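quick one
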Amino acid sequence: MAVVSTETIPVKTEPDVVGVRRHIRELAAKMGFTLVDQTKLVTAASELARNTIIHGSGGVMHVETLNGPRSGLRLTFEDQGPGIADIELALRDGFTTGSGLGLGLGGAKRLVSEFDIVSRVGEGTKVTITRWK
Ligand SMILES: Nc1ncnc2c1ncn2[C@@H]1O[C@H](COP(=O)(O)OP(=O)(O)OP(=O)(O)O)[C@@H](O)[C@H]1O
Ligand SMILES: [Mg+2]
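structure w/ magnesium ion:
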């Protein structure tokens, strides 16, 4: 597998979320993802971008296009916020420390092929999603 291109996009404000959505939609379409898969990626990216802003006090999204036997899109949302004490609990549907529904993380996980969270309390959070074509 080869990483064909990478870019880093700020995720700090609500307009940034709109930009993330548009960017992922365009890139996924250009890569030939089906309309359904484009929507899955955009929805997952949108939830994770909102978490980065709301819970992580802002961060960045790294975008990687993957090529090899299969092509895919990998997105990493990274922040230096408070971190997640219990990742298993955070992934549970309905769990929230905020005012949301607590469906974002679990929902995003179900929409992608691979899902990974690395988080340290007091240091920050990194959520990586990959969708293969
Ligand atoms: N980047 C992050 N930094 C710190 N905590 C996070 C981060 N992302 C998620 N969490 C924690 O995980 C919990 C669950 O996240 P999830 O996205 O499922 O729900 P929510 O954001 O609270 O509500 P919803 O996404 O449904 O509006 C959050 O309430 C928060 O405590
Ligand atoms: Mg959320």
